[in-house]
Specification:
The complex is a heterodimer. Chain A is α/β, with parallel strands linked by helices. Chain A has eight helices and ten strands. Chain A has two domains: 162 residues, Rossmann fold, CATH 3.40.50.300; 67 residues. In chain A, a hairpin with a 2-residue loop joins β1 and β2. Chain B contains 16 helices and two strands. The radius of gyration of chain B is 30 Å and the shape is elongated. Chain B has one domain. Classes of the chains: A alpha/beta, B mainly alpha. The interface between A and B is medium-sized, with 32 and 26 residues. Chain B: Pfam families: DUF3526. Chain B: Keywords: Membrane, Transmembrane, Transmembrane helix.
Chain lengths: 238, 470
């Protein structure tokens, strides 16, 4: 479960995140929409413990991130926009390495199973990552999350640059993880994919969460209209 | 985490061909350096051997002449060269006073390129002002010697820097750092482990290269195992110092280019600047006295002594009646006066000559007190000591030379002042020089290096606070 309580981040005088309150329960997929600079990536960095909040708190599985960032990382997996692994290692070796340093010692069969579950073709298991497409690398990222038995998944623009088929496949994998009880927070620009996979959708602007609704309560057209309406600059007072 | 880091770090290094490249490079560098050192040591030993053979031939010739003289035959030699005269023996057949090469001489040239392998002090020579200097090639002075010490002190840190300057920054620049940081691990620990593994890899490569080169050149490693182990311990501790610096820079700086520049700056500081500054400070605070002044003083004393030779001789014999106790002839010639004057000049110049040793000692003490500022100085001094080519070794040799000169003179003086002939029977009684090397220890060097390593790692673990992915 992910909880943020008045989570705020300031860079000097600039307010990057302003009193964010959100909650992602087990099995939920929460999509954060917003333009560049809206505060989506800052939220993820704060949840990962890469940044310290100026005020407020973030919790992963009831553990305060600021107080015990390392403990929270046992429960979470993270896939950035461009998942970069070790290019001269194969998918099996990358998965073995990242699972190993996270404390999960896995046999070859288990490693293969996780890669298969993540939708990777068997013939690719032994190939070096340097030969992989972005979509294939994202699947290895999912396999790392599966192998780690992550309770929380943080995704930062994971589908940007993926072709529609790969993006659809990725959405399917997210729903699969959601069915296993994983709480997922995904920052994205992709309204269509958000509507398709999300349980809940939040729209951010200037560091604030402006709107929040359940995905099944809104159509794609309404979502788009709401999003564009929020993104339009206010008319300057004459 | 360590076993996974070990397994995959080795794979990554092997696949990126770093291990192969480093292995070949170390083999070539160490091989070339040991070859150079061995050539110099061979030249040193050959030079001594040739001098010993020449002395042997000269002694045989001396015995032949003495035999002829003792049989009453005429010899076709100038009177001052006939070995029945003790001073002819003392000046024409001086002993070889050699500084024998030590088992590990090939590792560090040290002071050996400034001194001769042996000297042959004559009975009437100015050995008290002995300097042992000879001309050195200006090109060699510019670049130094390509010996093992040069490879270890100058080149090995550069290899370590090239090998590890971007352990953390490369992850950041490739984009894999964020995934690593999302794992329940300490990045500081992770960097420490990565560098520890690289240190182990490099250590194995260095040891293998040393052993391979030693076997390749037929050097007897096992006969000198303790010294060899000290050498390895010194090299590994020095490497550890550089890895500790790389650790700090990786944590503090952040970008590969900046890391590389910072580490090269530190290399210049520790390897070039600090030794050069300390050397300059030593020369300014404790300057060596003018050699020209000393020579001038010696000449005027000699001129003064020439004028008062009879008086000096009388005083000398009054002070040393033991030299002439069996003399019934009371014959006095040039050598009687000359040797007595030399004794006087020697004692008068003693404070001036001692000043060189004192100033040199003060310079060495200064370096010793501040050597911890530069591990390069610590290792250079330790390697020179291990090779038997340090300043201390040559000072020890110098004192032994002076001691032997005294023995040589004292052995011949009773014959001279008693106006006795040197005979065949006296030949086997001539003193023989045996060099006594100093015992070497690298304990203090190892302790200083380990202290610096602990300090740097302590700084790395204690005082760095930075969120690298931000």
């Amino acid at each position: 479960m992910i909880i943020t309580d008045n989570l705020t981040k300031k860079y000097g005088g600039h307010l990057a995140l302003d009193r964010l309150n959100l909650q992602v329960k087990e099995g939920e997929i929460y999509c954060l929409l917003g333009a560049n600079g809206a505060g989506k990536t800052t939220t993820i960095n704060l949840l990962l413990g890469f940044l310290e909040p100026s005020s407020g708190s973030a919790f992963i599985n009831q553990v305060n991130v600021k107080e015990n960032a390392q403990a929270t990382k046992k429960f979470l997996a993270y896939i950035p926009e461009n998942l970069m692994l070790y290019p001269s290692l194969t998918a099996l070796e990358n998965l073995d390495y990242f699972s190993g340093i996270a404390g999960k010692k896995l046999g070859q069969d288990e490693l293969r199973n996780y890669l298969s579950e993540a939708g990777l073709q068997e013939e690719a298991f032994g190939r070096r990552i340097s030969t992989y497409s972005k979509g294939m690398r994202q699947k290895v990222g999912i396999a790392i999350a599966l192998a780690k038995h992550a309770k929380v998944l943080l995704l930062d623009e994971p589908t940007s640059g993926l072709d529609p088929q790969a993006s659809h496949e990725f959405g399917r994998l997210l729903r699969q993880l959601s069915n296993l009880g994983v709480a997922t927070l995904m920052a994205t620009h992709d309204l269509f994919r958000a509507k398709e996979v999300a349980t809940k959708i939040g729209i951010m602007k200037n560091g604030q969460l402006k709107r929040e609704f359940y995905a099944n309560e809104i159509s794609l057209a309404e979502l788009e209209e709401t999003y564009l309406g929020l993104m339009q600059p206010k008319a300057a007072a004459l | 985490m360590f076993s996974y880091n070990l397994k995959y770090e080795l794979k990554l290094l092997w696949r990126s061909r770093w291990i192969q490249l480093l292995g070949v490079l170390l083999l070539v560098l160490i091989g070339f350096a040991v070859y150079n050192g061995q050539v110099k040591t061979d030249q040193w030993e050959n030079s001594i051997q040739t001098a010993q053979q020449t002395l042997k031939a000269s002694d045989a010739a001396m015995v032949k002449v003495l035999d002829s003289v003792e049989q009453g035959l005429e010899v076709s030699l100038a009177p001052w060269l006939v070995p029945t005269s003790p001073m002819a023996v003392g000046n024409v057949h001086p002993r070889v006073v050699a500084k024998d090469a030590q088992p590990l001489s090939y590792i560090a040239t040290g002071q050996s390129d400034l001194f001769t392998p042996y000297v042959s002090p004559k009975a009437t020579g100015d050995d008290f002002a002995i300097e042992f200097t000879e001309m050195t090639s200006p090109v060699q002075l510019l670049f130094g010697n390509f010996d093992l010490a040069f490879v270890i002190i100058y080149l090995l840190p550069l290899l370590i820097i090239a090998f590890s300057y971007h352990v953390l920054s490369a992850e950041k620049e490739r984009g894999s750092l964020r995934i690593l940081m999302a794992q329940p691990i300490s990045i500081r620990q992770w960097v420490f482990q990565k560098l520890t593994l690289r240190f182990l890899v490099l250590s194995v490569l260095v040891i293998v290269a040393f052993v391979a080169v030693a076997l390749g050149f037929g050097l007897d490693v096992w006969a000198n195992a303790p010294s060899f182990f000290i050498l390895i311990a010194l090299v590994l501790t020095y490497m550890l110092f550089w890895f500790a610096l790389v650790f700090l820079v990786n944590l503090w700086v952040g970008q590969s280019a900046r890391n590389a520049i910072s580490l090269l700056g530190l290399w210049i500081f520790f390897v070039l600047l600090v030794p050069s500054i300390l050397n300059q400070i030593g020369s300014v605070l404790y300057p060596m006295p003018s050699r020209t002044q000393m020579i001038g003083q010696m000449r005027s004393l000699k001129a003064e002594a020439t004028e008062k030779q009879d008086e000096i001789l009388d005083n000398f014999l009054r002070d040393h009646p033991e030299y002439a106790v069996n003399d019934s002839t009371q014959k006095r010639n040039f050598y009687h006066r000359y040797v007595a004057s030399q004794q006087l000049i020697r004692s008068e110049l003693e404070p001036v000559v001692n000043r060189y040793t004192e100033q040199l000692q003060k310079q060495q003490d200064l370096l010793g007190n501040f050597k911890w500022l530069s591990p390069a100085i610590v290792v250079q001094q330790a390697l020179n000591r291990l090779a038997g080519n340090s300043t201390a070794d040559f000072l020890n040799y110098k004192f032994q030379v002076m001691g032997f000169s005294e023995t040589w003179r004292n052995h011949l003086m009773p014959l001279l002042y008693n106006n006795q002939d040197f005979s065949q029977e006296d030949v086997p009684k001539l003193p023989v020089f045996q060099y006594q090397p100093l015992s070497s220890s690298a304990t203090s060097a190892l302790l200083v290096l380990l202290g610096l390593v602990v300090l740097l790692f302590g700084l790395g673990f204690g005082f760095t606070k930075r969120i690298w992915a931000s």
